[in-house]
Design a protein that fits this description.
With about 200 residues, this protein is of the alpha+beta class. It has 5 helices and 8 strands. The two termini are about 35 Å apart.
Length: about 200
């Protein structure tokens, strides 16, 4: 909502990067996580989260162009990296970079608007620690960092970034972050399916 409220102006560019090292890729193991038909490979395992972020922050994706790759010498019928571009309704552009076989470990979402930008970054392999959020508007810069603890039974995949955004929003104004809906999930699955044709 912070982005949609116009806090950084009209969105002009949205960049999503996610680099990690999955043990199954490091050791060239076979698993459902590497089999495209079973819901695996980079686009399904991490791409669903990245594409949801793009939809949440950028809105309707009118055009999505993705390329899939893996490191040379990998004999498995999979892909471990995805990179591509997006065009959003309203004219904004975007980029996506996923690498599940990287020595670097971070995920970052950068939203660049006509009057400022927001960068959300998490470093390391523990998805609940190392969050940093920076908002730049003109000559003003606001930055915060936070580590999170899961409640018993809480899903950790979105907990950190959701809690970080809630903290930022509470500081700026009393807003609530919407969670993914069934429609959001279907939209992401359609994007994944169309990118694999």
């Amino acid at each position: 909502r912070l982005i949609h409220s116009g806090a950084i102006g009209d969105i002009e560019r949205l960049e999503v990067e996610w680099k990690t090292m999955q043990k199954i890729n490091q050791q060239r193991l076979e698993s459902w996580k590497t089999k495209i038909a079973e819901g695996g490979a980079a686009i399904n395992v991490y791409g669903s989260h990245a594409l949801y972020s793009m939809l949440l922050f950028g809105g309707v994706i009118e055009k999505l162009d993705l390329q899939f790759s893996k490191k040379p010498g990998d004999p498995r019928a999979t892909h471990t990296a995805v990179h591509g571009t997006a065009e959003f309704e309203g004219g904004a552009t975007g980029s996506l970079l996923l690498d599940c076989e990287s020595e670097e470990r971070y995920h970052q979402i950068t939203a660049k608007g006509s009057s400022g930008s927001i960068v959300m970054r998490q470093e390391g392999s523990d998805i609940l620690t190392g969050f940093k959020l920076k908002m730049i508007k003109g000559d003003n810069e606001f930055e915060m960092s936070q580590d999170f603890v899961l409640e018993p039974g809480q899903d950790g995949r979105f907990a950190g970034i959701t809690q970080m955004l809630k903290l930022l929003l509470l500081k700026m104004e009393d807003l609530r972050i919407p969670g993914p809906t069934l429609v959001d999930g279907l939209t992401v699955q359609r994007l994944i399916a169309s990118s694999q044709k």
